[in-house]
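Page 42, continued from yesterday. The earlier attempt failed because a stray header line got pasted into the input along with the sequence. Redoing it now with the clean sequence only.
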Amino acid sequence: MKKFLALILALFTALAFAGCGGDKAPAAGKETPVKVSLGMLRLTSSAPLFLAMDKGYFQEEGIEIEPQWFDAAQPIAVATASSKVDVGATGITAGLYNMAAKGQKLCIVADKGREEAGYPSSALLANADQYAAGLTSIEALRGKRVGITQKGSTYEYMTGRLLESKGLSLDDVSLVPLGKLSAVMAALQSGQIDACILNEPNVTKAETDGYGRIITEVGDVIPYQTSAVFYSPDFAKNENAGVRFMTAYRRACQDYYDAAIEKKDPARLDEVVKIIAKYVQTPESDIRAALPYIDREGRLLVEDIQTQIDWYAAHGLLDGALSAKDVVNTSFLETAMKN
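This time it went through. Structure tokens are written below.
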């Protein structure tokens, strides 16, 4: 009897230790590593991806990230829709919606940055000389040259929405497509354009370098799901890997939100800023000055996706019929939230 009781006690102790931080058996599905190519830009709004990569969250889920760096949003959408990269993380453009309208099965799955009142993310800037000459409001854009990366980009959308908030339209300005963000910034600095919209940390860089002045933060005028994480058609077929990716991503969103939005712990904020700066390749002071809003759970503003689709359609930038339900798939995140 004593031997039996001793055996039971030993078994109970072993189980208790296993549930309190001892080595855990791998969860179902996590024992098979999967390589995931990830297309993204070096922007502050990619912070959760940087954190998940740097802190090993993807690795813990059996995800081996192969980062692919791009210079503009639309090429990421094209690469993701054609499954040349597994996961894309960038602005939601008219090009992406057009591919979906033509039958591409690309899925928008999670938040990667939104315009939220009171939080820096994207801003309308004027060339410093133009600002000094009176270009200090949205209304003053009438007749001005406004730089964008390309037609149908998030920059055209934001410019149009800001103008419309003051009773103007894109017809009231001269849009100057320049291809890359770096070219837009160079044109603002040289005075080849009068104004443009930039993302952080480029907003802070333009101000710090003295050639740009903020007219308004975009989020103070419109709520906007500016960028997202989306899955390629091929990757979306792998539900297990898709959920594992979202599990790591959601964990990093929580880290970012607690450190950068709620600022619960100065040491954690320092860590987050240092990691972002490493990937964005920008001074930590610029990152710290403008940390954008990202949902703590990675949730999308689904209703705004429909607003965007309607706007692009109304401006002749959408070829075909489309609704938000055709492109949004929150099931991967919802499953990850239950884990």
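Notes: Residues 1-30 have pLDDT under 50 and may be disordered.
Reminder to self: strip header lines before submitting.
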